[in-house]
Amino acid sequence: MHYYGNETIMSLEQVLRLEPSEVRILEWVRTYEFLENRFGVDESVPYFLEIKCEADHVMIRKNRIMDFPDYSCEEQLSFGEVEQALAVFQQWAQDILKHVVSP
User: Fold this and answer.
1) 44, exposed or middle or buried, with CB in 10 Å at 0-12, 13-18, 19+?
2) HSE-CB of 3 using CA atoms within 13 angstroms
3) 3-state secondary structure the chain
4) Model confidence pLDDT, tens digit, residues 32-88
5) CA atoms of 17 and 89, how far apart (whole Å)
6) Burial of 41 (0-12, 13-18, 19+ CB in 10 A)
7) For position 5, what pLDDT does the model report?
8) What was the pLDDT predicted at 3?
9) Is the bond into 69 cis (omega within 30 degrees of 0)?
10) Which residues are CB-neighbours of 95 under 8 A, at least 6 positions away?
11) How far apart are CA 46 and CA 63, in angstroms?
């Protein structure tokens, strides 16, 4: 986990263990653009995710990495509660992990 200003960057695996109270405290979390493979080598991931607490809602984004550092937002959703947003955010992380982790 790394901190840059008011943004916390963590792995997809760490996101799966994230609790609503942690999201409220951290306010803005995004995932790494890399995933360590079974040999300990970083491989690029085609997406990174963001969850951010705004004044009156929680926003989540699924961003597709084009040509790093360029990216485009593929999906953005807004929720009234952290719990709702976190459930979708974690599902997105699971989906990415299923597609990029080789057996």
Assistant:
1) exposed
2) 5
3) CEEECCEEEECHHHHHCCCHHHHHHHCEEEECCEEECCCCCEEECCEEEEEEECCCCEEEEEEEECCCCCEEEEEEEEECCHHHHHHHHHHHHHHHHHHHCCC
4) 887 776 677 777 889 999 999 999 999 999 999 998 789 999 999 999 999 999 999
5) 11
6) exposed
7) 65
8) 55
9) yes
10) none
11) 8
**Identity (one letter) of the amino acid at 1?**
M
Whether residue 23 is predicted with pLDDT greater than 80 in this model: the reply is yes
pLDDT at 71: 92
- Mean pLDDT along residues 9-22: 94
Q: Which structure tokens are listed for 69? A: 């550092």
Rounded CA separation 86/27 (Å): 12
Token digits of residue 75 = 């999906």
